[in-house]
Amino acid sequence: MTILHIDSSINGDNSASRAISARIVDQLKGLDWGEEVIYRDLAAEPLAHLTLDAFADTSVLDEFLASDTVVIGAPMYNFTLPTQLKAWIDRIVIAGTTFRYTENGPEGLAKGKRVIIALARGGIYDVGSPAAALEHLESYLRGVFNFIGIEPEFVAADGLAISPEVRESAIANALGETIRLAA
Ligand SMILES: Cc1cc2nc3c(=O)[nH]c(=O)nc-3n(C[C@H](O)[C@H](O)[C@H](O)COP(=O)(O)O)c2cc1C
After folding, report:
1. DSSP label at 158?
2. At what angle do helices 16-30 and 164-182 cross, to 10 degrees?
3. How many Cα atoms are found within 13 Å in the side-chain-facing hemisphere of 177?
4. Atom of ligand 1 at shortest distance to CA of 11?
5. How confident is the model over 58-106, as pLDDT tens digits?
6. How many angstroms separate the CA atoms of 108 and 92, rounded?
7. Among residues 20, 36, 80, 181, which one has the fewest Cβ atoms lying within 10 Å of its Cβ?
């Protein structure tokens, strides 16, 4: 089994999403699979913005297709995902390969993979909260993975900008949640 581990935070060692995604991978490695882990750091080695020429290079798509489980560290920047992560999404959502349009509507073709996403957000975006309408990170990632045939799982650390205490406890809770994923 192959785990593809992706990070996209610009915050290096201070990144919550990196800490949580790393813990998820550690938990999965604790299962007795004999997994291979492929690591892609989209902040350290960014993919270029999409161009028509970029479609000729299928290496990112091939890496995704070859993986059984994908673990993604996804911070919220300006209410959505980092552009670094969007550039990766742009390379894996490919008509005819990971989805197709049929007479009955779109059909996802990337079924069978497990995708686990570690979210880190400075604010709170729960349904009914004042900023709920600005949540375009989890909703976008759920939508795009659903579109290609995958139901992603999420672990979230929220309210990280509220206070050091809230940050500490939100990250601790999220790290604890990762145990559930490996169960
Ligand atoms: C450039 C930038 C933009 C951000 N925009 C938002 C935002 O729109 N909403 C929010 O709740 N938090 C925002 N934050 C806070 C981050 O979501 C928060 O710091 C989170 O911990 C980032 O994840 P990381 O620690 O893995 O980098 C922003 C942070 C940065 C650096």
Report:
1. -
2. 20
3. 18
4. 27
5. 999 999 999 999 999 999 999 999 999 999 999 999 999 999 999 999 9
6. 12
7. 36
